[in-house]
């Protein structure tokens, strides 16, 4: 019924809860290769905890804060220590993509950071060119990162709730069918 990633994500969330979501999103934010696909883990976490606001809020917060912490760590590492994340094998972003991200930032500024964080596939790329070629402070970068990550995770939350309700409805129908037998 579940794919292997979804099953592993459910087991991970069941064992470690929102901490697992925080760690995976922090690694994704830091441009480090994915331990588990963050989107799959997040949706699995929503399915695991249910759709009540009290249960969903810690998972949502863990994902947003984790992504922001990871991206801020990259920003600070580049700005303060001159780290070049593209030289690391675990970072799946090439120099060419960073050049394109730099042009986005040159044209749009901090709103480009928020917008890129809201779009799958470009999340976190602007941390490096923003740190290298701008006078943006770390707190302002973190705020823009947080806004974009909240939009991204909000969209994932909608998907997670739809999946959770879909599974719940399907399980309810299955239960009614089994009871009728």
TrEMBL record:
Keyword annotations: Cell membrane, Membrane, Transmembrane, Transmembrane helix
Please report the record's description of how this protein sits within the membrane.
Multi-pass membrane protein
Compartments annotated for it: namely: Cell membrane
| GO annotation, cellular component aspect | plasma membrane
Record's signal peptide: none
Membrane-traversing stretches: 6-29, 41-65, 150-176
Query: What InterPro entries does the record point to?
Result: DedA_domain
Give the principal location in a single coarse category: membrane
Could you tell me which PANTHER family the record lists for this protein?
Answer: ALKALINE PHOSPHATASE LIKE PROTEIN (PTHR42709), UNDECAPRENYL PHOSPHATE TRANSPORTER A (PTHR42709:SF6)
Name-wise, this protein is DedA family protein
């Amino acid at each position: 019924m579940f794919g292997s990633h979804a099953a592993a994500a459910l087991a991970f969330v069941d064992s470690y809860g929102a901490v697992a979501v925080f760690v995976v999103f922090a690694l994704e934010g830091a441009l480090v290769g994915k331990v588990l696909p963050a989107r799959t883990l997040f949706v699995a976490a929503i399915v695991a905890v249910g759709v009540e606001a009290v249960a969903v809020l810690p998972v949502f917060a863990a994902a947003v804060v984790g992504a922001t912490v990871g991206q801020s760590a990259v920003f600070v590492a580049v700005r303060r220590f001159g780290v070049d994340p593209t030289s690391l094998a675990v970072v799946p972003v090439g120099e060419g993509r960073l050049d394109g991200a730099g042009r986005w930032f040159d044209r749009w500024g901090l709103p480009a950071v928020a917008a890129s964080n809201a779009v799958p596939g470009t999340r976190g790329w602007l941390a490096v060119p923003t740190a290298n070629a701008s006078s943006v402070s770390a707190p302002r970068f973190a705020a823009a990162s947080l806004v974009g990550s909240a939009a991204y995770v909000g969209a994932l939350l909608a998907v997670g709730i739809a999946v959770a309700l879909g599974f719940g409805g399907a399980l309810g129908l299955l239960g009614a069918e089994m009871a009728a037998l």
